[in-house]
Request: fold
Amino acid sequence: MPTMADVARRAGVSVATVSHVLNETRPVLPHTRQAVLDAMDALGYTPNALARSLVTSRTHTLGLAVSAAGNPYFTEILQGVESAALEHGYGLLVADPHDDPEHESRAVRLLHERRVDGVIVAPSTAPDGLLSYLARHRVPTVLLDRVVDAPQDGPHRFDQVCSENTAPMADLVTHLAGLGHRRIALVAGLPGLSTTAERVSGYRQGLASAGLPHDDRLLAHGDSSSDGALRAVIALLSLADPPTALVTGNDAMTLGTLRALREHGRSVPDDIALCCFDDFPWADLFSPRLTAVAQPGRHIGGRAVRVLLDRLAAPDRPAVTERLPCAFVHRTSCGCPDRANPARSRTGRPGRPAA
Reply:
């Protein structure tokens, strides 16, 4: 196996110069740098990542902690993170916190102990312990999808990248109201998540915008899971005055909702209209096709990597929070006529459907 000394001899430079080229620890003249790269290519030299990390204090590895198992949205985010990391020459270590605060803290601590250069985390419902650890150890961090409030004693300590939640959810509600629905229910996510709170706020805003009263009985928590949504929808259907339209808070709850409706003999959209927050690859294959708000998962993941790399380059810059727009995907589960080419709006605001 060729060594740095072999590369140096072939390129006609010192071993120290080869090290500077590999580790970017000192400027090297362009023609000298190219000679080293050509020698490496000719010899088939592969740098020792461990030795390189000892020189640079960087492992060129990022950590990602998201509860991706069974969640198509987080799977898209993972793909975006991995693609962007590889594009910038970084490896990726992945941990699944299972949306459990204790598991989350252990998972991120293990990533940190593996000396990742920084971490990207989708925080749980009780992230205080995790955030305290990250701040105490000054771990470069980007919070993903779920945001946290700035501490009362100062500005944000962490960069954050997420999608818009409130306005797109409001638009789903006003879309259904525009079709004549007056009893619109929300199957909301796990209490304590910022995404749940923001989507509930959007639901309330949509009702107010449409001139509809808020009925607490029509807000049911499906706890961000298929089984939770199944139970929530059964309870909604049991009301003396049940909803005529449903909005689900994520893709897992959409599946549980469809199961509950099928088991209770309710047809979509003939018996009840349905709109979903979160699109997924097979949503267009359902009958009826699912009207949804699509989050830009891959873009969010890629943007989180770039924000983290910016943090590594400038550790003391102010923290940023970036929100990416969603897309309204107009299909037929809301009760609108089928369209050959479903309309998409990157503002998250659908046009008024035909009555």
